[in-house]
Amino acid sequence: MKKIISVILIMVLSVSFFASCSPYTLEQFVEEAKPSIQEISDSLGEQMSMEILARDGKFVYQFFYHIPLDMSNEDAKAALDSELENGKATYIDIAKQMNDAGLKDSTVVVEYIDMNGEVITSVEFTADMAEAASAA
Fold it and tell me: CA 18 → CA 59, 78, 82, 94, distances in Å?
């Protein structure tokens, strides 16, 4: 399911970026993307929802679990971090697209939050990560 969400998100964000030739502010980008993100969140059902926001100059995806997890938060963190590592190219591409749209030094943050409001994991992705990986 996480992979499907990632693919949908990259498509939504790509369309949003190329819809206008003028540079965006982070807040404008978030506001423009919110209706599409809300549609995706609504499709997740009652177990999970998602939101986007601008926080400290970073573009933040928040995934909220509305049910108890069938594992400890430590085990969930390990599993989610592994999934995020496998899908990091998606979020790095979003940061790169944000840079290309005029939002320099863009950072994308992905957070998973349990039903009690505790952050299970929070991972940051930047466009520089792609450059570092290709230089290695």
Answer: 17, 35, 31, 12
Fold of 2-135: GMP Synthetase; Chain A, domain 3 (3.30.300)
H helices within 19-87, ranges in order? 26-43, 73-86
Q: Considering the chain, what is the average pLDDT of its residues?
A: 81
Q: Where are the domains of the chain?
A: 2-135
Name the token pair of 56: 């400290």
The bridge status of strand 107-113 relative to strand 119-126 is antiparallel
pLDDT tens per residue across span 21-80:
456 788 887 888 888 888 888 888 888 998 999 999 999 999 999 999 999 999 999 999
**Better pLDDT: 6 or 44:** 44
Q: How far apart are CA 130 and CA 35, in angstroms?
A: 29
Q: Residue 76 in contact with residue 120, Cβ under 8 Å? A: yes
- The mean pLDDT of 85-93, rounded to a whole number, is 88
